[in-house]
Amino acid sequence: MERPLQRKTVLWMVPFLFLLHNGEEALTMASTLEEVRSGMPRFLRVFLPPVTEEQFLVSLVLLTVLVFLCAWFGNIGRDRSWGVYALVGLQMVLLLNVLAHVTTLAVVGRYTAGSVTSLLVNLPFSVYLIRRAFVEGWVARHSLLVMIPLAFVIHTPILFGFLYFSGFVARLLFGT
After folding, report:
1. What is the pLDDT of residues 145-158, one digit of tens each?
2. Is residue 99 assigned to a domain?
């Protein structure tokens, strides 16, 4: 029987896989940003905030740094530390993001930025991580249930607020 990966190794995979996904989005967003917006039905466009490429790139960088900081300073070797909760919760958000990518693929009908890593990496890894966190008690079981609605709040309203903030940073950096 194979020994499962150590918890710290699994949790350190979160920022690196976050980086991989955000890297795919960064490399492909310019070509799909307007395409996705124009391919969406009019009633769904109201849910997409107006985002520039620079603003999106700043968001990706800031979010990726934030996830690495959670792993670095979060004492992830200890059960139920804030870092373990943060990384499991962020992976729950990425699992929800898979649904957003699948929805976008279905609506637009073609590749959109981040779709490949979302489906081939984030989906299986999210299921693996969340299952291990549940079975091995890395986080309290009731906390996993709380993370589900919290993931919706983080994925949409908080993420849009973060994109808005990134617009300020992008204007400072790029003058756009």
Report:
1. 999 999 999 988 88
2. yes
- Phi, psi for 109 (deg, rounded to 5): 85, 15
CA 29 – CA 35 distance, rounded (Å): 10
Strands (E), the chain: none
Q: List for the chain the helix, strand, coil content (%; round to 5).
A: 80, 0, 20
pLDDT digits (tens, 9 = 90+) for 89-138: 999 999 999 998 998 888 888 888 899 999 999 999 999 999 999 999 99
**Assigned domain for 77 exists:** yes
What is the C-alpha separation between 159 and 154, in angstroms, rounded? 6
User: Does residue 44 lie within any of the structural domains?
Assistant: no
Residues making up the chain, counted from first to last: 176
Give the closest residue to 144 by CA, choosing from 119, 127, 168. 127
